[in-house]
Amino acid sequence: MPHVKIWTLNSKLDILEPGLVPYTEAVALQESVHKEVLEGSRPDTLILIEHPPVLTLGANFHESNLLMPVESYSAKGIEVVRTGRGGDVTFHGPNQLVIYPIFDLRKHGQDLHKYLRDLEEVIIHVLSKFELEGFRFPPHTGVWVDRALPRKIAAIGIQVKRWVSMHGIALNCNNDLSPFDLIVPCGIEGYDVTSVSKETGRDVSTEMAKPLVIEAIQKVFFAD
Q1: In this predicted model, what pLDDT tens digit does every residue of 126-155 receive, in sequence order?
Q2: What burial class does residue 70 get, using C-beta atoms within 10 Å of its C-beta: 0-12 exposed, 13-18 middle, 19+ buried?
Q3: What is 30-87 written as a DSSP string?
Q4: For 123, which of 117, 140, 154, 164 could close a Cys bridge (C-beta 3.0–4.6 Å)?
Q5: Is 186 a catalytic residue?
Q6: How far is CA 31 from CA 24, 25, 145, in A?
Q7: pTM to 2 decimals?
Q8: Out of 13, 16, 27, 186, which one is annotated catalytic?
């Protein structure tokens, strides 16, 4: 794994920025941090990361949502990995900001539905900084834009073990969206996937989004 940039925002939150990391290595990092947070040897920790092209298959994955054989994705340079998070299939790739809060949810309401809504609120806050209205689109988890023709801009899938969270949010910044055409994203048919760059008409990088995510995390989870 490349050098991990680590900094402490305050006594309540550590932030890790490992850069571009293969998905399976990122899961191992999450598991290591999860253990430390659970033990109380590390505060809540936010991992801001990117992945090489990968399809992740969640706990509710349905094979019909892969539109090609697995080997066809490999031929295109896209890894396919089963994962412990909730949800169906989604795509991660460079220039998509992946946000992994490893949080002790006993300090944040100990309520999984509230936690999911709080994660959505983080992204809604971030999007507002780009003059985009993000909104929830029940019963689907995640954040969407354009109420007239809803498009998904951020996917959310979590796993919680002993009330400490793993996995989290994938926010499309200026990443290639074409791989989403090779799957049924999150198992939701009939809706497009979009990005901050596509919606704003300007190049919005993960580096531009990171400080806004940190600000929103502070506001939603650490306001006290």
Answers
A1: 999 999 999 999 999 999 999 999 999 999
A2: middle
A3: HHHHHHHHHHTSS-EEEEEEE-SSEEEE-TT--GGGB-S-HHHHHHTT-EEEE-SSSS
A4: 154
A5: yes
A6: 11, 10, 32
A7: 0.94
A8: 186
